[in-house]
Amino acid sequence: MSYSLVWLSEVLRAAGLKVAETNGWVNRGVSEMGKVRGVMCHHTGSSGPGNMPTLKTLIQGRGGTRPLPGPLAQLGLGIDGTWYLIAAGRANHAGVGEWNGVKTGNSSFIGVEAENPGTPQAHWPDWQMDAYRRGVAAILSYIGESSEMCCGHREYALPKGRKIDPLFDMDLFREGVRQIMRGTAAIRGPIPASDARSGRPTLERGSKGPDVILIQRAVHEEQDGKFGAATESAVRRFQSDFGLRPDGIVGPLTWSKIDEVLEGRVALAEVDNDGGLPSGAQALLKLIGDAEAPAGYETLYGNNQDNFPKPLTTMTLSEVINTGPLWRRLFRSPACGRYQFMTPTLLRLRDRLHLQGTELFDSGLQDRLGYELLKIRGYQRYVAGDLSKVEFGLALAKEWASLPVLQDCPGAHKVVRRGETYYAGDGLNRALVPPQTVEELLTTIQIPSPAANAA
Fold this sequence. Notes:
Blueprint: H1 8-14, E1 19-21, E2 38-43, H2 55-60, E3 61-62, E4 68-69, E5 75-77, E6 83-85, H3 105-108, E7 109-114, H4 126-143, E8 150-152, H5 153-156, H6 170-182, H7 210-218, H8 229-241, H9 252-262, H10 279-292, H11 317-331, H12 343-352, H13 363-376, H14 379-383, H15 389-399, E9 409-410, E10 415-416, H16 435-445, H17 450-454
Parallel strand pairs: 1-6, 2-7, 2-8, 5-7
Antiparallel strand pairs: 3-4, 5-6, 9-10
Helix pairs in contact: 1-4, 4-6, 7-9, 10-16, 11-12
């Protein structure tokens, strides 16, 4: 039988959101829902390849020492902002708790699991957060509730502290939802149907023809002119490499990068004369490394490298990942190396770069991983002029707590001032670099605009 939340598909699509229906979702649920009073926000707390690697678990449930049958949410939110419809009935997502007098979480709240590692350093792409706010606003408007009936799992769960998800500021999130519901929020526009500059159409899975062959040539996929699953996956990797929204859809921004690649017009900062890392990235990594780990590539959190028998650079990547939980118990954090990599970050980078895990965690690999983090945080977009200095500075500060924000902004725990760490208020982190130093370096690495070159 079909459960009552079948309206989710229509409501989310009407809000202009990308929706993917899982097989059998309308008939999936633990039981029927009660009166829907609100939306509960979660993060998956895991990382892996793909846009929604936890989808199977959300549908089927989890095993292990704390088994829980699925479905574990009605909705999943992918990294690219796609809404996955998982269940139209009740899901096991809330547990014991209370929010605004409602104690029946599973029966009264629609659960949303957003794909994110769920660590303080984890990146939430702006397109994913935009889709999160818009989707929640659309659901609340449909059921006739205000933004106050959106809560985080950590806010609902009892006893307090039982849950930590999601880690973003829920008050700011609700304010964004409130503005969307009032019609006063700036919303990301839909992808245009064609590129006004070149006239090329926006293409996605299912498309065919010579334009698809151009895409396949740029992303190093078999050039058969058919936009299938393999091409979509290659496009997502291509988009990630260039700091674009990894949605597998080739619109104007992706076409622009494809043209650059096909014509050999790779951004200057992406190529270094000796084949190594770009000089701008090297300078940034030196600044970060000097602040995060002055002792160098062997560093364990808290300079505990002398308290561990095996030098870090003699370990393989898999050994480092597997030893992370031990370091957390011994030293309070698994952060390691020149750039103080966290274990979930290393897992994500391993999958992103298709590493085997047998690679030595030496200076060369650490630099390569550090550069990949710079790209994830928008390095290529910044040097090409598509990201402002303040925006890129904030992205770097979210990744490395020793770097400061460049203007006052909402932080992980409170509103932070220029020069403070993004994580101010956690009693652990502080900025170690003056904002002026970051600004001066960022100024030197940005590619000059054509007008500046002409002058």
